[in-house]
Amino acid sequence: AFPYGAMEHPCASTFGSICNEEPFVIPHELAHSWTGNDITNCNWQQFFWNEGATTFLEYQISEKIWDADFASMIFLSLIKEAKESMEQFEKSNPEFLKLCVDGTSYAFTTIPYAKGALFFFMLQEAMGRDVFWRFFKDYMTVFFQNTMSEERFLAFLAAWLEKEQGLDDFGSFVQKHQIGEWLHGTKLPSNVPKFHSKRVDAIEKEIEKLTNGKMVDRKKILGWDITTQGSFLSLLRGKATKEQVASLDAQIDYTHASSMVLKGKWIAVCAEVGYLPSEVQALLISHLIKRNSAYG
Q: Model-level pTM?
């Protein structure tokens, strides 16, 4: 049913062809067996209990399978996409920038994934890694096959910290770590965790070459795996002009890439700057319109 993408289902997650090119999708969907399927968001307005927690676990698994540098590259690309969504909705519908959206409206964006994961990373830094994972394991046990809400989570966190850590002033903990701002604010709070990746450093160097009118290192870029090249294209968005995108196409020829992932990301780069020669238009039609229409 899912020839390209992937989807979590209780006891039967499906993995399409994207997993051959972006293998980190596999730990994401498998993690949903716990965060999303066992513990489910109470409503769509608090979707991050599913996707934020799962993205957080995806990072932990990816760090073990590959390394922290790879996991951070993936996460930094996701954070960039989420920030673009936050800029998009900042004026038109700032509610969508919150982890706990007020009202009944909702939009499916990358914000609950990235900002939601950052919320759990923030708690890990605030509590300390060992203490946090004791808490998280208890959280998964207590709320097994149940739903999660802001009120339920904070009540459990307060009770757990008092019992396990002797913390009797939860209000000060909430204020110190800006939990209210995390859940109801429209920006990333000042205590947002920081990430670094040497792979991203290498990507940024090639982007800097391109945007300064220099030739990129074609051999190096084509030597990167599909996931790294995908991050390169994701991080390129918003930094290159139409002429620079055309130059990159002349050097790398992403218009004729065989990878499904790279096709999609390249289309986004081209559309953003209006680089739409006939061959890119043909790619857009075949990759987005005809492919999606075939699966109805």
A: 0.93
